[in-house]
């Protein structure tokens, strides 16, 4: 049985964890995600965005503790390395990645959502790094990504206590971008985000993600200032998105990349 499925249409890619109800994330699941990123998503120059979600009531309950209890140190390090590679692969995709979350986003499932650019959740969604209660620290980047998203004080409190964070609090602290009623509204919201991204100049979207991530990784510096200046300057000139977009605006017509609709992956 495949515990993760993938859809790779022209514009929107999808990663669906499909081992309901828990959608546990195993070594194989992470390896499959790595393969899909490298072989299908990264080379697809027409891709506008990626949506990752879970089949059934939960995004992911994290690791299956039954499979982990007797794991040795070296195997645990390998599992963590595979997890880090998959999270970094998502984070480093040139296009925005949207997590559509319902139910539980626990432990490595929580970390998977943190590697995405945008997070939308249902009102029943719950986030937690609860493995600290059974003697296991985060394995795949939560100690870096969660403070970057919500600030170090709140992140430390959530990580140190392993407590659950509900949807309303997640919205208040900036952990998620939007809360919706149920899974149907969740996928509609993901579709809307993806559509709005797809209607912007693709090279500019990719450059913006790269610059934002660089700033988060390294902080503001002369090097990053120069990178932004160069990216802005290089976007100008004949046969560029800038020229096409500005001329279309002045002439009152749609830009070449405007879309009335985009091909949408079928989740159900």
Question: Can you offer a commentary on this structure?
Answer:
- The chain is α/β, with parallel strands linked by helices.
- It folds into 2 domains: 194 residues, 2-enoyl-CoA Hydratase, Chain A, domain 1 (Alpha-Beta Complex), CATH 3.90.226.10; 50 residues.
- The chain has 11 helices and 9 strands.
- The strands form 2 sheets. The protein has a 6-stranded mixed sheet, sandwiched between helices. A 3-stranded mixed sheet has the order 5-7-8.
- Strand 2, helix 1 and strand 3 form a beta-alpha-beta unit.
- Helix 1 runs parallel beside helix 3 and helix 5 crosses helix 6.
- The longest helix has 19 residues.
- The mean pLDDT is 87.
Task: Provide the fold topology.
Blueprint: E1 4-7, E2 12-17, H1 27-41, E3 49-54, H2 65-68, H3 73-91, E4 97-101, E5 104-106, H4 108-114, E6 118-122, E7 126-128, H5 142-150, H6 152-161, E8 165-166, H7 167-172, E9 178-180, H8 183-198, H9 202-218, H10 222-234, H11 241-250
Parallel strand pairs: 2-3, 3-4, 4-6, 5-7, 6-9
Antiparallel strand pairs: 1-2, 7-8
Keywords for this structure?
single chain; 268 residues; alpha/beta; 2-enoyl-CoA Hydratase, Chain A, domain 1; 2 domains; 6-stranded mixed β-sheet; 11 helices; globular
Q: What is the percentage of strand-forming residues?
A: 5-15%
Which class do the helix and strand fractions yield? alpha/beta
Distance between the termini: 17 Å
Give a count of the beta strands, DSSP E runs of length 2 or more. 9
- Broad CATH class of the largest domain: Alpha Beta
For the sheet with most strands, the description reads: 6 strands, mixed
The CATH architecture designation of the largest domain is: Alpha-Beta Complex
CATH topology of the largest domain: 2-enoyl-CoA Hydratase, Chain A, domain 1
Q: Indicate the overall shape.
A: globular
Order of helices and strands: EEHEHHEEHEEHHEHEHHHH
Number of domains: 2
